[in-house]
Fold:
Amino acid sequence: MSKFKKKKGGDLPAISTASLPDIVFMLLFFFMVATVMRDSTLMVVNKLPAADQIQKLDKKDRVMYIYAGKPSSRYQDKYGTSARIQLNDKFASVDEVGAFILAERASKRQELQNVLTTALKVDSETKMGLIQDIKQELRKVQALKINYTTRVGDYTQNLN
Amino acid sequence: MAKRAAPEVNAGSMADIAFLLLIFFLVTTTIETDSGLNRKLPPMEDQVDPPIIREKNIFTVLVSKNDQLLVEEELVDIADLRSLAISFLDNGGGVGDEACDYCQGERDETSSDNPDKAIISLKNDRETSYKVYIAVQNELVAAYNDLRNREFERLYPNLGINFVEAQKQYDDPRTSADTAEDLKPKLDQVKSMYPQKLSEAESNKLN
Structure:
């Protein structure tokens, strides 16, 4: 009777969703692999000073990190308690900074080599002498763009 | 014994499980961005002919080894540093070609001629602690930012944002190219009105 009777056998078979999990897993693995947890294990105390006039340090591929501070408690027997520089995963002396920067720079893509920033992640209890030495080394290798990495906060937190 | 076909496991919910994991990873991986004070170091080679800078155009800030702050050879509290720096930069004491028509300072003859000439020289001792140094740097940058904010808001009141916000918007990669293009000349103009001339001298090893 009805004019809108379903045609028998003519309808399309349901689209198979069996490959959907594969697609989603592919995405999942992509994200798991692509999110680089680019934090070398810290061997120094790294309580950053506070500042509020800060700029963001976007684009991690353009940043080289230099850590400095007192060796953390488990390394103190071996390395003492005076402030040290950490490059990648090991302690380094001041004159290794230049070589480190050159090596890092060489590992970056050509077009990024001139726009690299050096992020100084220095513990707030460090004396300026060490930072002065690092800055001198950076000037020697023409790594002039630096960033004193800080945490967000009022400057008065630094004064006690 | 009759062979019984094992019932097929329904894999329809597999996608849901995978989606759940995917969303979990998407949400939890906060790509944390570091932030800090950007500075530019002076190049190593000595200038053959250093420009002559008049004493009144230099604002010396010295952080001593006991973390005391000496501004123009006077002991001051760090809380006063920002206003001192602003009054120095915004002084506009110059006349003729060196006059500064947008400065709102005192026009004191013994202070800076115009913001373009004004240089802040920050010195420190090797024993100065880093956190105090950063606090001082922060206040000096704040002085520049305050002045730039003032001028940005005066020149572009219809944007409804200040200089720092505009800069942040410009730096944000998510900002559309049109907006960035639009902001750039405005930012550059304000920057040229109050150029950040903040020199970090090498510390004197003797004192």
Summary: The two ends of chain B are 98 Å apart (CA to CA). Chain B touches chain A through 54 residues (CB under 8 Å). The mean pLDDT of chain B is 81. Strands of chain B lie at 34-40, 58-63, 69-71, 74-76, 119-124, 198-200.
